[in-house]
Amino acid sequence: MSDEPLGPFTWVDDADGTDDPATGDVATTPAPPVAGHAVVALEGISKTYATGAAEVHALRDVSLRIDRGEYVAVIGPSGSGKSTLMNILGCLDVATSGRYELDGVDVEDLSETDLAAVRNTRIGFVFQQFNLLSTLSAWRNVELPLVYAGVPRAERRERAHAALDRVGLAGRVDHRPSELSGGQQQRVAIARALVTDPALILADEPTGNLDSRSSEDVMALLDELHASGRTIVLITHDLEVAAAAERSVTVRDGVVLTAHDQQGEPVGAGA
Ligand SMILES: Nc1ncnc2c1ncn2[C@@H]1O[C@H](COP(=O)(O)OP(=O)(O)O)[C@@H](O)[C@H]1O
Ligand SMILES: [Mg+2]
């Protein structure tokens, strides 16, 4: 599976000139592309929320492997643990127990700072609400992850423009979110997710706020990204949307029930 870069992207291994893992340089260095390399490896992951007297076991002993270039949908009814799983996959929260290796990095022992660097450079997030800054133009929104990663200004501009070109918005780089349609705003968000050349694109109900035409548009773009070698995890309650993925994983009562090919029969999913 090829992992073609989506633009003239160069990794900055040494953003602050120190080449020192203590300053986060290690987090900006991508793991070498190895065939069959696991981008996500969860092993016996559990997450327990303590709420007053009661404990909620939101995830129970979840093991899941997602290889480079896979397109996986995570489905399940409300309250099943999808958001909890997404938060852990996205390094927005840490598990109560178990192991999580993201793109070869063991994340459960990282400090908050290192976790933030991993989140910023190895994961591209796409949210239901787009989460764009309304006062910034499209390209300024897209360059933000590169600002946090310490990429020099000229390179940021070039990479942000290339990413917007990639999602078909070359003619809208100076538009603010309010001057764009919902579908265009989500494409800006996808450009922002791509600009760091992340190991994983994590999309949480990316079509949840879009009309059917814009939804198709965004799903077609995700298909294209998958075809170009991107690794995508799509969280959705919409089975029609989930059908776009190669494989789906069902979460129910905190347990990953089944992993099956789109062509295969769901085993015990019932959803
Ligand atoms: N911060 C929290 N504190 C306590 N319980 C929570 C918290 N977040 C989620 N839960 C509980 O964990 C379970 C899984 O929730 P969640 O991961 O949000 O499911 P989903 O996204 O599939 O709807 C639910 O029972 C929910 O009430
Ligand atoms: Mg949820």
Automatic annotation (TrEMBL):
The keyword Cell wall biogenesis/degradation does not apply. Signal peptide: none annotated. Residues 1-29 are annotated as: Disordered. InterPro entries: AAA+_ATPase, ABC_transporter-like_ATP-bd, ABC_transporter-like_CS, ABC_transpr_LolD-like, MacB-like_ATP-bd, P-loop_NTPase. Residues 40-271 form the ABC transporter domain. It comes from the Bacteria. Keywords: ATP-binding, Nucleotide-binding, Transport. Residues 20-29 have a biased composition (Low complexity). GO terms for molecular function: ATP binding; ATP hydrolysis activity; transmembrane transporter activity. One of its GO terms (cellular component) is membrane protein complex. The keyword ATP-binding applies. This is Putative ABC transport system ATP-binding protein. It comes from Microlunatus flavus.
